[in-house]
Amino acid sequence: MVTTVKDGWELVVGLEVHVELNTVTKMWCGCSTDFGAPPNTNVCPVCTGQPGALPVVNREAVTSAVRLGLALNCDIVEVCRFHRKNYFYPDLAKNYQISQYDIPLCQDGWIDVDVEGETRRVRLERLHMEEDTGKSTHLGLTGRLHGADKSLIDYNRCGVPLLEIVSRPDIHDPETAQAYLRELQAIVQALGVSDARMEEGSIRCDANVSVRRIGESLGTRTETKNLNSVRSLGRAIAFEAERQIATIEDGETIVMETRHWDEGRGVTETLRRKETVTDYRYFPDPDLVEIHSPADWVEEQRGTLPELPAVSRHRLIEAGVDPAQALTVVGTGVLAIYDDATTGGADAQTVANWLTGDVSGQLSTAGVTWEESGLTGAHVAELVSLVAEGTLSNKLAKQVLEAMIDARGTATPAQIVEERGLKQVSDEGELRGIVERVVADNAATVDAIRGGNDKAIGALVGQVMQATRGQADPRKTNELLREVIAAG
Hints:
The chain is an alpha+beta fold. The protein has 3 domains: 9-300, no CATH class; 309-420, no CATH class; 428-487, Arc Repressor Mutant, subunit A (Orthogonal Bundle), CATH 1.10.10. Helices cover 39% and strands 20% of the residues. The chain has helices at residues 59-71, 174-191, 230-249, 295-302, 309-318, 323-331, 335-343, 348-366, 370-373, 377-388, 394-406, 413-420, 428-441, 443-450, 457-467, 474-487, and strands at residues 9-20, 75-76, 79-80, 83-86, 96-99, 106-115, 118-131, 135-139, 150-154, 161-167, 203-213, 222-227, 257-262, 267-273, 283-284, 291-292. Helix 10 (377-388) runs antiparallel to helix 11 (394-406).
């Protein structure tokens, strides 16, 4: 169900999404971009703004930006340039950020998103290149600047290549904003230009939110930061819409400001008054040359684009996968495992069931990522095949899966079945003997079944399973029990 605002009002949202690129080195220097290095170790005179240090553009970052722009249906500007965005803040060593202003690399794109079965198009104003800032850690009870005893600065992130994707104000409910962010994240991951992990800050989202009475011009917007999950984005937009409507109806005015999202309390709070474009005093960076993107080179980059998420989802649905599961498979980065498994002949829907159900669930319980698990499409295909041919029941297959995760992919399902003796008992002769003993030992239950209590057969199935350590074929067990009971 899509969230609606109070009758007579309209919510208007534009998103600014920042994507950290996974280049080996930073945007303007040769420093490493490795995440998690000790503070202030991946730094040099360039990224810390030392006098006389000159930046040089990272070609790979430009290439990644063009590829993402093409995937987002943008026009690629043939000649663009960098500007200095001037502001003073401790995490910005140079006291200006190198960014793009009037001539961004990519502009006028769009993304189609699905919201409860309805396709909605969100237009993009621009995609431009810039550099990331350092990381501030505020020490104190609040963990924020206000109320902190002291603040520490880590400049490792300074100069990491950053792409900013700015949407037009085409979003009118939290669900569309969430769908947009998920789709953008999936596209970025499909291209491989960033891991797009929100929990590590490699993709970050700011929401520009305003409200207006139906038919009126756009209202004053606020920008909400610290949105580190898709869920937080939706909650923050919904809260801010309610706050702004209540403020206006109380006869007060909305102030253009930057606000902080407090996840624990579920509220936004004033962070600082919002700067305007003139406050930043943009001017062309004199140390950097223009970037040229010839049409033939752009087309060459277009040819490197992989299958994009929307196309992948459609392909899975056409193969018989449930649409919700197709969304999960494509959105969780396991499409390659799915493709490998189904290429080997495994049924598409069955593979999707395992990937989105038991495999995902067991990985979550074990606290293991897909990458750490070592699971491959071949593993999944073999597991599905063992179930389909009757070697494993679903219950035994789950045990095999758990062992595969423990082994981090170094053992195949067949090897685990052999080593642990988990093969399902399907031999009719062996199973019939066990069934006959269970029937003979449970006369009262058998009489109840013959008297019409069909559900009582479950107790006998359970005893057969116990006798076979859970390895009896449930379907064949049920059939043999009914046959033996009827014959007696």
